[in-house]
Write a structure and sequence with these properties.
The chain has 175 residues and is an all-alpha fold. It has helices at 2-30, 39-96, 100-111, 115-122, 126-140, 145-157, 163-174. It holds the Pfam family GerE.
Length: 175
């Protein structure tokens, strides 16, 4: 919330300063200024507006770099979580004793592919894919895709993305 207030303040300062410069130019061009101001006052106003624009630019740059760093940290965390999730998948597949073909099918099933899509991706028949998914469900101790997904979603919700801890928890669940 504090960051939003700072960005709003930056925008207001820059807008006020820009309006000053633009209105001053327009008033001079159109000739609407009725009473001239002293050159000292004019210089002070211009210096203040210039400082405001510079300050807004510097603060805007700081806010941008802060946001950029946050985005990179979030991407790094996402990559770490994604890598940990893939390790968790590999560990589960190993625990269940899935064959290489079953691992591929399980991964496609977890990604949400239909049996037809999996068959097309693997260049096999739908019957073969259906038999492989049934073998996966049997080895995982579940009755279908929703329960298979549930095993992994449960690990995500409990924060068990580290393979060592997740493996222990899964062993306890399966016992």
């Amino acid at each position: 919330m504090r960051g939003v207030a700072i960005l709003l303040a930056i925008a207001v300062v820059q807008t006020v300063c820009a309006v000053f410069f633009v209105s001053d130019i327009l008033l001079t061009v159109i000739g609407l200024r009725t009473t001239p101001i002293s050159w000292q006052t004019r210089e002070l106003l211009e210096i203040g507006a210039a400082i405001g624009l510079l300050l807004g630019g510097v603060l805007g740059w700081l806010a941008l770099s802060r946001t950029w760093r946050r985005a990179h940290r979030a991407e790094a965390r996402l990559r770490a979580a994604s890598g940990a999730f893939m390790e968790l998948l590999d560990e589960r597949f190993e625990e269940w004793g899935l064959t290489a073909a079953e691992r591929d099918v399980a991964l496609f099933a977890i990604k949400g592919c239909s049996l037809q899509e999996i068959a097309a991706l693997r260049n096999t028949s739908e019957g073969t894919v259906k038999a492989q998914t049934n073998a996966i469900y049997r080895k995982a101790g579940v009755s279908g895709r929703p329960q298979l997904l549930g095993l992994f979603i449960e690990d995500l919700m409990t924060g068990d993305l580290m393979p060592e801890q997740a493996g222990k928890d899964q062993s306890r669940r399966m016992a």
